[in-house]
Write a sequence for this structure.
């Protein structure tokens, strides 16, 4: 009975912590799922302060319908309420668990939990510490059948359950008072020495004392680390022994190891001479951009087992730039007792698959401090898209002329809602002005009379500090005296921009020939060539067809962006000027070209500030 009531109270405290985390993490501040052994459990957060977090004054209501809870090893019906309080110091959670007729399904006699229990919970990288203690109303178990009922009332309860990854040990201390209708009396329970064990095993140390009427005492004491039994003592004298099998929930720590918690039931074993095994592995479905990968072992590790680790990118970033570089990311290796932690030196790319590459000792195995070995850890997974940067450009990514502007919009970015922050910056190229480096929609403009390619980066981040980045190459043609620019778009493809100042452009010119009847523009491998008949000359205001020898149109092929013969189209001259010597001084033309089933629209600008289409 002493073990049972202690286990019930401690377990209800841990379930309150787990249910609160599940409700807080749910997309609608709620959760609903099937229980491993049948039935359902559902819960929701009443977010009274509207901060989308489980904070002081909020409440979690959990409904269990025929739900098998392996923590209690019973199938439960009823409602549990968790009213959250304000954590103090290093605590992460605090509150009160209220049991509203929580019953064990199918039990005879009927078993019903009543009352309330308080809890607080503290988590650090190496420790999980649960403190469960009495509320103003008692914690009780009511047993009843058709003829009789009895209530076991637990008061002045105070228990600490801690699991530490650096020692791979779990310890439990507790004390409480039971007023028992079944025994028609009362008794007090306390741990003389803490119950302690390797994770996921029965205890190898500890003593529990029960004090009854007139100060009479009975105790249960673990014999030694190699024993599977505990001695029963009456007034300090061993009178019997008891197998520890089946009493593991109170001390093992197993209920709160994530890997074990995913199983249908807990498997608790005896401490053995070896006992070296993997208790916890990272979940590929929870691979975070700034997160660490952790393995937890049942014994302290030899740090020399692993010499280095690297995250190898195995796929491209969704919606990322073309020709992405797959850059390996070194990882920091940390060994603390049985906990192996691998942390990327820089953030991993959201939405990108990675594979872990480990450099091990000569045997290629991971080793504990006693020399026992296991195969090397492995991991492969895709980083969660916890934040997504999205950039929309208003037209062609081109700044034509010193007074040109371009609108960049990042309001389509997301991070399970709106991003926590947006930031724009320039990575290279001619200097730009930003209207607001931290706004969702901004205006950029040239900061100097210069030509070249400016690369702009958008960084969107979430509240956890995960960042997704997108880059955009903007053609800057602020110096019109030196600029020849072609902007064109085939069908619904992105804009392509070719300039005479692009380093990849080997040749470029814009000329008129034969008394201003032939127009010839070449930029790299792209060309516009056409002649006028019937005494016409090139000038602003002309709109003429080309291809298939149109009457009154342009002879020649016009736009040479089509590989086949027979393209047709229309050219419109928006600006045209010659200098005093008759050479071309300024030109702005737009064209629409059809080549088979392909349609292209484009603009050519030579020393002209007229915007492209």
């Amino acid at each position: 009975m002493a073990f049972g009531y202690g286990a019930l109270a401690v377990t209800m405290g841990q379930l309150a912590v787990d249910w609160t985390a599940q409700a807080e993490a749910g997309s609608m501040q709620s959760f609903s799922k099937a229980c491993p052994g049948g039935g359902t459990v559902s819960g929701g957060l009443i977010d009274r302060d509207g901060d989308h977090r489980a904070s002081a004054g909020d409440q979690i209501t959990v409904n269990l319908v025929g739900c098998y809870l392996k923590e209690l090893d019973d199938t439960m019906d009823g409602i549990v309420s968790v009213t959250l309080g304000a954590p103090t110091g290093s605590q992460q959670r605090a509150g009160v668990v209220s049991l509203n007729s929580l019953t064990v399904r199918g039990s005879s006699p009927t078993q019903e939990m009543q009352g309330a229990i308080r809890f607080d919970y503290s988590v650090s990288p190496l420790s999980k510490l649960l403190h469960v203690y009495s509320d103003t109303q008692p914690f009780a178990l009511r047993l009843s059948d058709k003829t009789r009922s009895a209530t076991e009332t637990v008061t002045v309860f105070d228990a600490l359950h801690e699991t530490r990854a650096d020692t791979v040990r779990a310890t439990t201390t507790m004390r409480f008072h039971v007023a028992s209708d079944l025994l028609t009396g009362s008794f007090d329970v306390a741990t003389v020495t803490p119950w302690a064990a390797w994770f996921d095993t029965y205890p190898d140390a500890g003593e529990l004392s029960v004090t009854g009427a007139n100060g009479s005492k009975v105790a249960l004491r673990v014999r030694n680390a190699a024993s599977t039994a505990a001695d029963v003592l009456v007034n300090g004298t061993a009178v019997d022994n008891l197998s520890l099998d089946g009493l593991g929930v109170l001390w093992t720590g197993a209920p709160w190891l994530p890997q074990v918690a995913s199983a249908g039931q807990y498997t608790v074993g005896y401490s053995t001479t070896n006992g070296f095994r993997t208790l916890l592995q990272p979940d590929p479905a929870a691979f975070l951009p700034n997160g660490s990968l952790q393995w937890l072992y049942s014994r302290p590790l030899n740090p020399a087992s692993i010499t280095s680790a690297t995250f190898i990118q195995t796929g491209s970033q969704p919606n990322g730039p073309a020709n992405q570089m797959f850059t390996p990311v070194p990882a920091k290796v940390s060994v603390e007792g049985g906990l192996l932690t691998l942390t990327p030196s820089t953030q991993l790319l959201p939405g990108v698959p990675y594979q872990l590459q480990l450099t091990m000792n000569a045997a290629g195995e991971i080793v504990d401090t006693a020399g026992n070995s296991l195969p090397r850890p492995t991991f492969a997974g895709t980083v969660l898209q916890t934040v997504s940067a999205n950039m929309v450009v208003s037209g062609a990514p081109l700044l034509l002329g010193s007074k040109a502007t371009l609108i960049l919009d990042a309001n389509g970015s997301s991070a399970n809602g709106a991003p926590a922050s947006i930031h724009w910056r320039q990575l290279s190229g001619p200097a730009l002005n930003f209207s607001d480096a931290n706004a969702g929609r901004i205006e950029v403009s040239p900061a100097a009379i210069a030509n070249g390619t400016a690369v702009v980066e958008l960084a969107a981040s979430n509240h956890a500090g995960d960042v997704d980045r997108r880059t955009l190459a903007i053609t800057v043609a602020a110096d019109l005296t030196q600029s020849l620019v072609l902007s064109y778009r085939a069908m619904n493809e992105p804009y392509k921009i070719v300039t005479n100042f692009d380093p990849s452009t080997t040749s470029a010119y814009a000329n008129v020939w034969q008394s201003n009847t032939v127009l010839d523009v070449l930029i790299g491998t792209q060309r516009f060539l056409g002649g006028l008949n019937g005494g016409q000359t090139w000038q602003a205001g002309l709109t003429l067809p080309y291809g298939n020898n149109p009457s009154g149109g342009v002879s020649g092929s016009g736009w040479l962006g089509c590989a086949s013969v027979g393209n047709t189209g229309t050219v419109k001259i928006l600006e045209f000027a010659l200098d005093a010597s008759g050479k071309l001084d300024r030109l702005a033309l737009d064209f629409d070209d059809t080549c088979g089933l392909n349609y292209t629209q484009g603009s050519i600008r030579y020393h002209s500030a007229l915007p492209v289409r």
